[in-house]
Structures are given as C-alpha cells and as structure tokens.
Amino acid sequence: MKKPIIAAIALILGAMAAFTAARWVNISRHTGPKVVIVAQPIELGKAITTEQIKTVNWPGADIPQGAVSKATEVVGRIARVSMMPGEPVLPGKLAPKGATGGLASIISDGKRAITVKVNEVIAVAGFALPGSFVDILVSGKDANRQPFSRTVLSRVKVLAVAQETTAEPDKPKVVNAVTLELTPHESEKLDLARSIGALSLVLRNELDTGEVNSAGVRLSDLMYSQSTRATSSSTAAHASASRQYRGPEEIRGTSRHSGATP
User: Fold this and answer.
1) Which parts of the sequence are annotated with region: Disordered (predicted)?
2) Cα separation, 144 vs 91, whole angstroms
C-alpha cells in the first residue's frame, strides 16, 4: 500500500511543478518588454512593410541593445542589410530616416560605392555575391615593362553584382560589373589600379578580418622556383669549394702537381 501512495504523491508533485513552470513561462512571454522582430524576409535596400514585422514580448529583461519597441519606428524605413524571420530589428540594420531606398541607402557612413568591370573568371565565376568580401589584385607592367601582380585592397565588401543588391548563394550568376564599398582613399587607389592593369577579385572568408600586406609577384618569381634557386645555390657552393686551397703546387715544365714535394 505504501508504494502506490508514494508513487501517487510523486505524480501529483510532478504535475504541480510542470504546471507552475508552464504558467511562469506563459507569464514571462506576455509580460516581457516589447520588441519588434522580423516576421517575413526583408531585403536590403527595400522599404520595410507592416507585414514584414511584428511586435512581441521579449522573454526576460535582457533584450538586445538598441532593440526597437514600436512598429511605427520601423515601417517605411529602408533596410541596410537583409533580415530573416525571428531576428530583432536593430538601428544598425536600418538606413537613416528619410532615405529613399536603393544602393545609396545601404552604403555605410563614410564609405563610397564604385563599380568595376569584371569577367567570368575574374569575378570568381559568379560566386562574388552582394555581402561577400573580396581582395582586389591588379596585374600589369611596371616602369621597366616587367609583368607584376599585387594585392592593392583587402577585405572589400561587395554591394551589388550587375544591378542586383540581394544575394542568392544557390544561384551564382556571371556578370560583367561588380559594385564595391570603399573609403574615399581606397576608391582613389582602385581607380588608379584599373588604369594601369587588369583587376581580379579574390573571394575570402567573411570571418577573416586580416589585412593583406604582400610585396606582390613578378615574372622572375614564376620563372625561377625556390627549388631551382636552391639547386643553383648548391652548384655555386660546390664550385666554390672545388676552388678552395689544396696545398702548395709544384710546377715542372708545363706540368702542375698539387701538394707538397716529397
């Protein structure tokens, strides 16, 4: 008799605990601070509509910094980045008030947009998409008419390919123009670089924030590999060793004999 009674008590206590937890979660869900989140996918450069957002009670008091609490503060604003359902709408994701949309609305403060011509190979075969980061190489000839290739800009953000500012990773496209986001000084460097040679885009990991500081490559670096140089150095060292001092020499007529005279 005791075991069934203990089991019944345990079941009752478990049910009460589950009911209390569910009630607490339900209360928290309806009493947390108001936060505007994304309800439908939002494309960058487009105005946000009422259907694309909704206001919910954020569970707990720890809400994202700068989170918007009123839908009226978001509707009609231009999205600076793409947003997916469930994420909170933050000020950094919105263009300034009064922005009219398009490419100009998604350019970061202090940056500029510049378009360069590319081809299928140079544009990483269509995988340089809006939002990607690339390094920019220039190949040409120096003052001595010698071929060279060098990285002139690193970790440059792609704003648009052709006239499209939205990315479709599963549908790479071959385009003939890419728009990049640069500082004014970087824009000047790129403008000069494309006047002296062909430009290439090198796709990089978006989490890689390292700067490229390369001396570049010249024709001699391709013609003479490291192994060739090592072989040449070894041959030169052997020849030098063979010319080293081998003791006194004795000259008899037209003959030369190495070593001391016995």
Assistant:
1) 228-262
2) 52
